[in-house]
Design brief:
Layout: E1 4-5, E2 10-11, E3 16-17, E4 22-23, E5 28-29, E6 34-35, E7 40-41, E8 46-47, E9 52-53, E10 58-59, E11 64-65, E12 70-71, E13 76-77, E14 82-83, E15 109-111, E16 116-117, E17 122-123, E18 127-129, E19 134-135, E20 140-141, E21 149-152, E22 157-161, E23 170-173, E24 176-178, E25 184-189, E26 192-198
Parallel strand pairs: 1-4, 2-5, 3-6, 4-7, 5-8, 6-9, 7-10, 8-11, 9-12, 10-13, 11-14, 12-15, 13-16, 14-17, 15-18, 16-19, 17-20, 19-21
Antiparallel strand pairs: 21-22, 23-24, 24-25, 25-26
Length: 199
Amino acid sequence: MHYRVQETAQVHESATVGEGSSVWELAQIREHAELGANCVVGRGAYIGTGVRIGDNVKIQNYALVYEPARLADGVFVGPAAVFTNDHNPRAVATDGSLKRAHDWEAVGVDVAEGASIGARAVCVAPVRIGRWAMVAAGAVVTKDVPDFALVMGVPARRAGWVGRTGERLRDLGGGVWEDPKNGDRFREEDGVLAEDGRR
């Protein structure tokens, strides 16, 4: 396997790093995590135990991806984005004792193919980010995001649709949307957007 891990990065011996991937300074990849081919893990990023990451994924500096997150191929995670894993976090149990790993059940963030998570966005598990969706910088995602949706705000709400290029889609009327950059067409029905081919 040919991949690059900077000297100050920590990659657990049980983790898998795919061909052509790069792990930069001070990044940490925990036990049994799987990183696909041609991925980039930026400075200071954290990949939790058993996290599964597809091919061609970019995880920017200081992003925190806690287990049991799943990232499909082509996902982008912006700087300092956070994927949580505990819907009701507490440091201590009701008796005041420190909670341990077995005292709670981790829930994850599932990010589908090609989706982008903006800088400092927070995805509150359990939640799914749909295919080619885009989460704006600083957004707080508390509900599932549909395929191709652009969401922003706190809490995040849909503010439009985006294509594979990342451009906002243009409304052509009658439920038809178009990517102004490459001409891809989409059809919207009942709040769901599906690819409809190119013009």
